[in-house]
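INTERNAL AUDIT FORM
Audit reference: QA-55
Scope: verify that the stored structure record matches its stored sequence.
Auditor: D.O.
Record contents follow.
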Amino acid sequence: MWIVTGGAGFIGSVLLWKLNQEGIDDILVVDFLEKSEKWKNLQKRKFSDYLEADEFLARVKAGKLPKVEGIAHLGACSSTTETNASYLIQNNYEYTKTLAEWCLSKKTRFVYASSAATYGDGAFGYKTDTLTTTRLQPLNMYGYSKHLFDLWALRQGVLDKIVGIKYFNVFGPNEYHKGDMRSVVVKAYEQIQKDGKAKLFKSYRSDYKDGEQVRDFLYVKDAV
């Protein structure tokens, strides 16, 4: 069995699509649906069971999981504007640490979503070596909550046993439920559909003219 946390979310639901394409449907999907529309992302996917995130965590702590081939941990609060630091620590840092410790104790594959937000303003570059990781200064609490786990894994000496992925600006199908946290790509697409043009960003740096800022984008199917 594979476990995909955040399986109803943007990248998680497309990962389910990819696993199904590979003939894998023995999957436990974990998420926190609340009142969002992301449940619709699960409608066409094949999986063996679904659990809410708090119930899943309780089962992990109680040792009540079946034999697991691997966990793809994509579930987290991904809002870069979230200001409740205690919530982010519990949901993004402590939750990830618990799953990592379980996987390490069972010698089970663990792939987790870190974040490009850990790099802050990019002053220290975008490498993943030890020196760079210890120097990074995220600009928001979301990025810091992700960075804390990277630092924990580094201190524990387990980065050669688990895999962390730092996504940069992913876009594509199944992100429509994310509201204001949707990618610039989909927002521009919707503006063009509605108004025939896209609104560009004002530049606050002299080396970039208005609307000429650049960044990399990654299509979600390439990400998974």
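Auditor finding: record pair retrieved intact. The longest helix spans residues 85-106.
Action required: none
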